[in-house]
Amino acid sequence: TAWVGSLSMGMVFFCSPIVSIFTDLFGCRKVAVVGAAVGLVGLLSSSFVSTIEPLYFTYGILFACGCSFAYQPSLVILGHYFKKRLGLVNGIVTAGSSLFTVSLPFLLRVLIDSVDLYNTLRVLCILMFVLFLAGFTYKPLIPNTKDKEGGKKGKFKLPPAKKICNFSVFKVLSYRIWAFGIPAALFGYFVPYVHLMNHVKDRFGDSVPEEVLLLCLGITSGVGRLIFGRVADYIPGAKKIYLQVASFFFIGLMSMMIPLCNVFGALVAVCLFMGLFDGCFICIMAPIAFELVGAQDVSQAIGFLLGLMSVPMTVGPPIAGLLRDKLGTYDVAFYLAGVPPLIGGAILCFIPWVHERQKLKERAKPVDGETTEKMLENESTLVSDTTGKPVKELDSGF
Question: Whole-prediction pTM value?
């Protein structure tokens, strides 16, 4: 049964590079609308199946792919409209997921108890239909590849493979460090979110309301997205990455502190801090991508990053589960889970320095070219002026 949810979450991120290509080719609006429609079909068809095998396709693949196609354009479109307040806007938009993280589980419990699972899925189709309608409001201001290739005639010619898969973003050294540093940090990042409830049952039994921990994570994550999204607007350029460094540092530290909490109140405090910095990490993802690669390439930059993130997200929690099965406790798993965020954060520290050096090199190139052209112009002028003059005058001029 667990594979249905795991497959769904994995497919959302695995599809991200493909989504970025379609977004570049056809624009945010069409990709978001089609994605919401596919997700609606997948969710609605899941409500009519009576065995678990079809759910692997209808919910685990079809619904997840639709969500992936609807999600990524919602991040890309923000950069078309906002520049100075991009961090705050991302914070507001991504805070919506925290709002539903807090409220939706209670609603789902009421719906399942009153109208059963199948009708609950049909009720959730209303949310997907709202997402479908919302996609029509996207109006991209930056031309996509189809518009560029079609030109005035409006005919669409398939662009070269280099433009379809824009691997040129990996030529940017600062982006390469970022794209591999974040997945390195995520090997332990999601372990607490997956195994925290089981750890609470092992440590405290059924005497404590473990749902409170999820509530704390959801609330403070939403608050963190709003606060740090606004703070990111005041931090210039690639130095925004230091916020992600801080978030990885605190999340790694909080993961290591979970086994040390012998009182439930201490565990609540740890979850509050963890949710706060989780919101920081998520809300500034898009602003950093815009800073590193620019608005034209940001779609595929985010897509490649999310695709790389899918590997540690899938691998990390099962490894922690194996450690628990072998050792009989989650303590070692949580201690080890805190190490990758610290290492990933240390790697990201180099990005602002590397990015500034890249900018200096790019500025130096046109300056050198202009200087060379001016020298050649001066030399040709000097030669033309002195060809008709006596040798003595030429010598005296020099």
Answer: 0.70
